[in-house]
Design a protein that fits this description.
heterodimer; A: 220 residues; alpha/beta; 3-stranded mixed beta sheet; 8 helices; 6 strands; elongated; B: 182 residues; mainly alpha; 73% helix; globular
Chain lengths: 220, 182
């Protein structure tokens, strides 16, 4: 009989001893050995470790102990569906970007949020050859500011409500492909965006500001 | 729409500061898995993790002006998520243990082997949850997120020796808990 029934098995005693020790009998520091194992360098033995039974036994025990952590760390975790949309919804509420284009028809008014106009413009710009990235924003230009002053702002001073009327001012930040003629790409963007906004949204007067602020090579 | 070409976080941050919301949306898409994963491992609860990730992105957007250009956006986001997770955890709501392996369960794995893996995953999850928050943070950032000691120090606003010292203690604590499970 070598021990009582309640005594843990020998390998558990060994690992407990290890985890409660500052050093091994050979003088090697336990924390440094554990670090070596946990960082995945257990196979990179130094001169002492190559000849030391204590170190090699410790590496074996610690590697088995740490394996579930390594396995768990490798499990891919995806973002839950809808996270990006939830974030952007919250941010748009904070921005209070409630600018609209306003068109009058025989049947009534048509209002299209300025951010939708910017989105359509951005998507149109992305179809132009040479464009690597296009970002769109609607701007509060002078005309829009005047409209705001003249319409709602004095009544609703805390809400940035205004109308752009049938005029849209859209800013595009664009990164183009290295080697393509920048001016030509920019002009093509303006043409494409203006045409798309006229055809898809019915905006007659469109100002499209194109800011080419980056040039990317193809594999960037 | 064409697939979005790769572009640097630095460029997107600059444009987001200029008011281009879709630049920020691209940043959120790019980093949402990381933010959620970190929050999940720090909080141990899906709902809390989702809240923390969402709050962190909104807070980051609100503070874009304060973001230092010499730092990386992901390091900054790690900081914000970690701080928000700490707030959530210390608010005292009990964290339900979460088994990350459940989400990635391989249907082809034999039931016994899968059960064994789930047990191991539970053991790691519970062992992580039992760690004091600072120790959990360094373990998650270094061993789960793969950040270097210097990066962990930057995220935790600490020093490399302090991070290493926390890791020494955390590994022993984690090891003892895992050993009890074996």
């Amino acid at each position: 009989m070598t021990g009582s029934v309640d005594e843990p098995p020998a390998e558990r005693q060994t690992i407990r001893l290890l985890l409660n020790s500052a050093t091994l009998p050979c003088g090697a520091e336990m924390d440094l050995l554990f670090e070596q194992v946990a960082d995945g360098h257990a196979a990179e033995l130094n001169d002492h470790q190559r000849d030391c039974v204590h170190c090699q036994a410790a590496f074996g025990e610690l590697s088995v102990l740490w394996a579930p952590v390594v396995e768990q760390a490798a499990v891919p975790v995806a973002a839950p569906p809808g996270l990006t949309e939830a974030v952007m919804r919250q941010i748009r509420q904070l921005v209070r970007d409630v600018w609209y284009t306003l068109q009058t028809t025989n049947l009534g008014f048509i209002r299209i949020a300025a951010r939708i106009v910017a989105g359509v413009a951005r998507d149109a710009a992305r179809t132009v050859p040479g464009v690597r990235v296009a970002l769109g924003r609607s701007t509060h230009g002078k005309l829009a500011a005047l409209a705001e002053q003249a319409t709602f702002k004095h009544r609703l001073p805390h809400a940035a409500v205004g109308v752009l009327g049938r005029t849209a001012v859209v800013d595009l930040a664009v990164a183009v492909r290295y080697g393509d003629p920048v001016q030509e790409v920019a002009r093509n963007i303006q043409k494409q965006v203006i045409t798309t906004l006229r055809e898809n949204i019915g905006l007659e007067t469109v100002t499209v500001n194109v800011n080419v602020d980056d040039v990317l090579i193809d594999d960037q | 729409m064409r697939p979005e070409p790769a572009i640097s976080d630095r460029y997107l941050v600059a444009r987001a500061r200029d008011g281009y919301l879709d630049a920020y949306e691209m940043l959120v898409q790019r980093h949402s898995a990381m933010a959620y994963r970190l929050a999940l491992r720090l909080c141990g609860d899906h709902h809390d993790a989702q809240d923390v990730a969402q709050e962190a992105f909104v807070a980051a957007w609100q503070n874009l002006e304060r973001f230092r250009a010499d730092s990386s956006f992901s390091t900054w986001l790690y900081q914000i998520v970690t701080r928000r997770a700490l707030n959530k955890v210390t608010r005292g709501r009990g964290a339900d243990a979460v088994n990350l392996l459940d989400e990635a369960a391989d249907p082809g794995t034999a039931p016994d082997a899968q059960a064994e893996r789930n047990l191991a995953a539970d053991a790691v999850t519970n062992a992580l949850a039992a760690l004091p928050f600072p120790q959990r943070t360094v373990i998650v950032l270094h061993h789960f997120e793969g950040l270097s000691y210097a990066e962990v120090a930057e995220v935790t606003r600490s020093s490399v020796p302090a991070v290493r010292s926390h890791l020494f203690r955390a590994r022993r604590t984690l090891g003892k808990t895992l050993e009890d499970w074996r």
